[in-house]
Specification:
heterodimer, A: alpha/beta, Rossmann fold, Alpha-Beta Plaits, 34% helix, B: mainly alpha
Chain lengths: 315, 260
């Protein structure tokens, strides 16, 4: 069941088009990652969805919600760099925000205690936010986004600024929250998207260049690869690979050749045979299937230099 | 809607308490007002204590009337007082937008009207409260040291001055909504008030109904004259201008994108 339908969404700043027409829908109860390098337009997209920015054109429609109605009731939003009233305590802030979101004073109190516990900053209940660490602010941010039980929880780079422990905990929290609400979160870290999300939207230069579930994407892009490393320059094997069956494409870099094939099983036995028969001077023979990162690179465009903002972390 | 507005207002009041505005603004206003009756009364003893006037110098300090002392005291509210009002109010919206906390609040279903008007009301309460006890202290000391001005005249003049000061506050709120940087909002507010008062003071013939004339009318009242007939339309115009500026503040704020 569709929760949000976005169509033809565009946004320009001072004549420069940053978002160049997005069409996508969010399914209720799913966790969706908005994945893209820095500057792809992730934050702008989330801000438009949350109502903080007005689209230049296009529409965002929530199911069962009319055009003029206030969608902010349905949304919980955590900006990339959450800011608070530093003079408030965590408890005061959550209660304040809860009251603003329309909860009764009793509800707001109950929900506050519940959420402080849930995001794991219970011990800081009565501490001034000014004294919070970055990780605690992020957790408080998630708590404030959840206070009115939103249908759609939007998080802008929720784990990017955290250390490995904090990151682990927040991801686990998201895993749990998935059961209750629809989550849309942006990230430039592929592992995070891979780990908690059902669906991935690849955003690049203001466009969705690819989308789908992990399985779909893997299936769509799995052209298994075989890496060959030779003891000498690989150039002289060029004609050999060009003439080989089963090879979709290949790339020669120095002494290594990367070959993309359609049928991994067949290709493997074919090449192993030839290696043995012709006695290739091989130092390495490796079979690797595509990772999300490879897919990303492929989707974003092969000819582009490797963007070092796409980082792969070992968690 | 209403409970949300009260929540917003409460937050403003608590914030002003936590950052000590509830202490220093009233205290400054008391000092501003009390200075005049005290120095006027004790000028002779002060001069004597400092060695007196040189022999032969005959300076007879005229004893000011109670009304003069009170009017003089009030004049510091329209000068330094205005400065304090602007300084404490200029960041009221601009500051929150600049820090990003406004975006945190306004992704919640908060009405823009409530957000702006609750802030305005918070500022107004602080202003009226501070001005009241400051002016009350002035009136009290003037009464003790000089003569008592009737409490009715005191209240009446308080009301007229409050209207003018309230308009300045509202204009500052408007600037705070219009500009992103609190400093700009403050500067524009002060400059506008100065220029306006200047024009209003020179072109008195055409400016009878001008809000800034309310203070002149209040002074005339304290001096024992009757209130000029232009006072009522001037008051009405002040209230109207306040409402218009407040409305504009909301309109301007709503048009701006929250996330810069």
């Amino acid at each position: 069941m569709t929760l949000v339908e976005v169509s033809g969404l565009k946004k320009s700043f001072h004549g420069t088009e940053v978002i160049k027409g997005l069409d996508f829908s969010l399914e209720r109860g799913k966790c969706i990652a908005l994945l893209g390098p820095n500057g792809a337009g992730k934050t702008t997209t989330l801000r438009m969805l949350s109502g903080l920015m007005k689209p230049t054109s296009g529409s965002i429609s929530f199911s069962n919600y009319g055009k003029g109605e206030d969608i902010r009731h349905l949304i919980g939003y955590l900006p990339q760099f959450p800011v608070y009233f530093d003079w408030m305590t965590a408890k005061e802030f959550l209660q304040y925000v809860g009251r603003l979101a329309g909860l009764s004073s009793r509800e707001a109190k109950g929900r506050t205690m519940e959420l402080l516990k849930r995001v794991g900053i219970e011990e800081a209940t009565n501490r001034r936010i000014a004294k919070f660490s970055g990780g605690m602010k992020q957790r408080l941010g998630i708590a404030q986004a959840l206070i009115h039980r939103p249908l759609l929880l939007m998080l802008d780079e929720p784990v990017s600024a955290l250390d490995p422990f904090g990151r682990r905990e927040v991801l686990e929290l998201l895993e749990e929250l998935k059961k209750e609400t629809t989550i849309l979160f942006s990230t430039h870290i592929l592992n995070d998207a891979e780990e908690v999300c059902d669906k991935i939207l690849f955003l690049h230069k203001g466009r969705i260049v690819e989308s789908g579930t992990m399985e779909e994407l893997m299936y769509r892009y799995t052209e298994a690869k075989i890496d060959f490393s030779f003891n000498q320059k690989a150039d002289k094997y060029e004609t050999l690979f060009a003439a080989s069956p089963l090879v979709n494409s290949f790339k020669i870099q120095g002494d290594t050749v990367t070959v993309e094939v359609t049928n991994l099983e067949k290709a493997r036995s074919y090449f192993l045979n030839r290696i043995a028969e012709e006695n290739w001077s091989l130092s390495k023979f490796e079979i690797s299937s595509m990772t999300l990162e490879d897919i990303f690179m492929k989707v974003v465009g092969n000819d582009e230099p490797v963007d070092n903002t796409i980082t792969k972390r070992i968690g | 809607m209403m409970s949300q507005w009260i929540t917003l207002l409460q937050k403003e009041l608590v914030e002003m308490w936590r950052n000590f505005k509830w202490l220093w603004v009233p205290i400054t206003f008391i000092l501003l007002g009390v200075k005049e009756p005290l120095t006027s009364y004790y000028m002779q003893p002060i001069l004597d204590a400092l060695g007196g006037l040189p022999k032969g110098a005959v300076i007879k300090l005229p004893e000011p009337s109670a009304a003069e002392v009170l009017v003089e005291g009030l004049s510091s509210y329209t000068s330094i007082g205005v400065l304090i009002i602007v300084l404490t109010t200029m960041g009221i919206i601009a500051g929150e937008r600049k820090s990003g906390v406004a975006a945190m609040i306004l992704v919640k279903p908060v009405s823009f009207i409530s957000y702006v008007t609750a802030k305005w009301m918070g500022g107004l309460i602080l202003l009226v409260f501070s001005f009241f006890i400051g002016y009350l202290a002035t009136w009290y000391y003037t009464g003790i040291l000089f003569e008592w001005i009737s409490f009715g005249d005191f209240l009446h003049s308080f009301l007229l001055y409050s209207l003018w000061l309230g308009l300045i506050l509202t204009f500052t709120v408007f600037c705070s909504s219009l500009f992103l940087v609190p400093g700009t909002a403050g500067f524009i507010s002060i400059a506008t008030v100065l220029i306006y008062t200047l024009i209003s003071g020179t072109l008195t013939k055409w400016m009878k109904w001008s809000p800034s004339m309310l203070t002149d009318y209040a002074n005339q009242l304290l001096a024992g004259q009757s209130l000029p007939t232009a006072a009522n339309p001037a008051a009405a115009i002040t209230v109207t201008a306040t409402i218009i500026l407040l409305t504009l503040s909301v309109v301007v704020f709503r048009k701006k994108e929250l996330a810069a």
